[in-house]
Amino acid sequence: MVTSMKRWWRHLTTGSLARRRAFPGLVMQQIESAIRECESRHTGEIRFAVDTALSFAELSAGMSPRECAIEAFSKLRVWDTAHNNGVLIYVLLADRDVEIVADRGVGNSRVPPSEWEACCHAMEAHFRRSHFRDGAVAGIRAVADVLGRYPPEPRVADAGNELPDAPALL
């Protein structure tokens, strides 16, 4: 129950000011540049999304960060790529939690879950020290490395930039 109350408190007190401190405009531009640069190395599509905190209804329903990431994957249409090669990096700021959701072209049937977990843990370690820019860029590069090691099968030509490179604010 204590953990639950702490989580409620974090979500109710984490607002847009905290998000702007963690991810100011310059950091958002650097994230966008990192995505653009990393996508030039593989055919995958990376989408980065920051969710400040869960709503009262989401907290009441007991939504996990993973469930929120899957919902964001759908809402942001990360699945809507020609080769099913979209990957969402989802940050839930109030929980300092990172989730990665990958479409079936690069999903867990081909990539060991430990690969995605390592990307998340690296970002979360930076975030715990309030190094949000470093964590975001390191995570994007780690995801790009995974996509480079596990290209979509069969190998396909790059369909171009199908998803926005700019981070999404949820």
From TrEMBL:
InterPro entries on file: TPM_dom
TPM domain ranges (all copies): 29-145
Q: Which Pfam families match?
A: TPM_phosphatase
**Do you know which PANTHER family this protein is assigned to?**
BLL7265 PROTEIN, UPF0603 PROTEIN YGCG
The name this protein carries in UniProt is: TLP18.3/Psb32/MOLO-1 phosphatase superfamily protein
Q: Which organism is it from?
A: Panacagrimonas perspica
